[in-house]
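Fold this sequence, please.
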Amino acid sequence: MEMVATYVLNDSHTIAEDVIALGRVIVEKDTKVTPKVIERLNDYSIMGVMCYEPSDFATSYYEKIRLSKEFSKWKTDYETMLVAYKVAVDSFVIKKIPFRESDLLNISSTLFTDKMTGKRLMTYINLMTPREDDLSYVHGLNVALMSKLFGRWLKWSAPDVDWLTLAGFIYDVGKHFLPQDIIWKPGKLSSMEYDLIKTHAFHAYHLLSKTNLDKRILNCVLQHHERCDGSGYPQGLKGPEIDDFAKVIAIVDVYEAMTAPRTYRSPMCPFKAIAILEQDVYQKYDIKYIHTFMQNLSDEMIGNHVRLNTGDVSVVIMTNRHYFSKPIIQMEDGTVIDLSKMPQFTLEEIV
């Protein structure tokens, strides 16, 4: 609801609270504004009334957020901070100007304040649809914000969370030296294209190692595609050989790539992304990090409306600790379903 001055009321407004004057109701709640209603308000010298906002008519969490003034402001801030981040990246790529850590941390604190919840941040990010030529920048910005959230979930110290956030901004800068049509190619890469992409970690590490960046950030640049089972690149490192920061960034990198909206596809449902991560949980990722990520991420989804493969809409009411991708949901008729026991149902999207 919002207070609207009487002189700007029109037929698009609906009164959200009873209007009382001289001890009695002169306009009832839920009344559509008409010239006669405005005349009555003026007769009683009513300067303003509470009216419904578009978000008040939304039926789901995502819809309410999409229509909210808070998201509208955040979206404006995001677009402004994205420009600042692009300048920082391009200055390094084109002119080899080192990243200013304070500038990057200011971007993250502007978009992810201490008071913002993880659920709100993840929802905001999911509602943004980037332009095609901004995809690499958006990916870096989103990973930085999610890494800050992940650091909090891990209960790391404030300085370590800042270093992890900086790593999120910088770790993938090597891809800006490669053709973007290959980086964001919708289809399968050829072996030659894949070999080219694998050079981005070494190339960026070589350039950034000449600056004064923290060693952990440099390790993220070099190792974010390494996997605990040795299946990653560029060095085929295994669990103990991989920096802890790189292990954390690797998880966020993969998750953001799967769930962020793209110009050529809709965002993947978070629970589908979690299901993919669960398949590799004991092989590719450090269990203490991937478990914390999936548990907290699924907890943040509680209360969201989700559409099933049947087309029905339900609400996530509880996390399933054994299968994070298969929560307990409540259907519109009140029926409660444990998706881990009902494989015929899958979650298709957040609505």
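The mean pLDDT is 92. The two ends are 22 Å apart (CA to CA).
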